[in-house]
Hints:
Distance between the termini: 138 Å
Radius of gyration: 47 Å
Number of helices: 4
Order of helices and strands: HHHH
Structural class: mainly alpha
Largest sheet: none
Mean pLDDT: 79
Amino acid sequence: MDxxxxxxxxxxxxxxxxxxxxxxxxxxxxxxxxxxxxxxxLDFFEVNGISPSEAIGPQMVTLEAKLAMLxxxxxxxxxxxxKDIEKTQTKPAAAMLYAxxxxxxxxxxxxxxxxxxxxxxxxxxxxxxxxxxxxT
Length: 136
């Protein structure tokens, strides 16, 4: 049963048997009921402004132009959203982080330490005994 159309009753349409067979095969390929397949086809023609009796050549060009214009509008919308996010969220957050890091990493002045020079004195731990001093 077709969703949304369960309570509607069926009505017959008179069409040629060869056309009916062809339509039934097409409906099976679409995996839809015959009513839904016909509804999809009618919606397609109405939405795209295509008439089955006219050649599709010039219409296809306008369809491509409409599609390109629709894609361009959506892309412009996405770009506007991204720019707004960047302006209101990303840049202020980055600026705050930069300011925090700038304060934390302030270069400290090197302290001048007084260097004490130790006078090197040679201490002799062991002395030789003088032979002169011991004999006297």
